Structures are given as C-alpha cells and as structure tokens.
Amino acid sequence: MTTVALVLTLSILAGLALMQILLISGLPLGNYGWGGQHPVLPPRLRVASAVAILLYAGFAVLVMGRAGILPGRGTRLVIVATWVLFAYSAVSIVMNAISRSRQERIVQTPVSVLLTVGVLIIAAGPTA
Question: In the prediction, which pLDDT does 5 show?
Fold first, then answer.
C-alpha cells in the first residue's frame, strides 16, 4: 500500500511542479493556480511558483525518506515532518475548494485530495 501511495504522491508532486513550470513560462494557465486571479502570472507569482517547485522537491525527498527509499524512515524528524506535510496537504484541500477560480476548484481540489491521501498513507506507514 505504501508503494502505491508513494508512486501516487510523487506523480502528483511532479505534475504540480510541471504546472508551476508552465505558469513561470507565461502560459495562460493562471486560472488553475494561485487563486486564479491572473491568467498569466505576474512576476511576483512566478517567483512564488519557483519557490513552490523547490518545496515540491523537498516534499518528494521527505516522503521518499518516510517510505524507506531514502534514509530517515523512523527518525523523529522525518515522522513529524511527514505529519506536518499531511496537515499542510489537508489545508490545501480547503483552500482549493474555496478558491474564487472555478478552474482551480475543479482541478486542484481533487488533486489536493489525492495528494493528502497519499501522504496520509505514507505518514501512517511502518517506522522500521
């Protein structure tokens, strides 16, 4: 079960990173992210998208550690950080669900749900 959750979680993080790259490049996909207020992201949100990519990479390293692919599976830091990521992901469900952007609500809310479920399964996994 953890392997499936890890593949799901890493796939979603990769897809989110790709979306951020497309937003940074100026494609008119802004209705699907950052509240949907700007079809083409302004410079400050492009910077935020770059930061998001770095965060997604960190999240990927974290869940791989918690799943036992990378070192740290049973360490207190990795366990706690994975539960914090779960909480962050759960909040993202709410934030996407209440977005003013219809496109963001329709696309990002289910993505957030899947990400949260994947992280939950990984977080609750074995510690040894």
Answer: 97
> Would you list the DSSP string of the chain?
-HHHHHHHHHHHHHHHHHHHHHHHTT-S-GGGSGGG--SS--HHHHHHHHHHHHHHHHHHHHHHHHTTSSS-TT-HHHHHHHHHHHHHHHHHHHHHHT-S-HHHHHHHHHHHHHHHHHHHHHHTS---
pTM of the predicted protein model: 0.94
Distance CA(79)–CA(45), nearest Å, equals 31
* Average predicted confidence (pLDDT) for the chain: 96
Tokens of 103: 């496109």
Identity at 64, one-letter amino acid code = M
Give dist(CA 18, CA 38) in Å, integer: 18
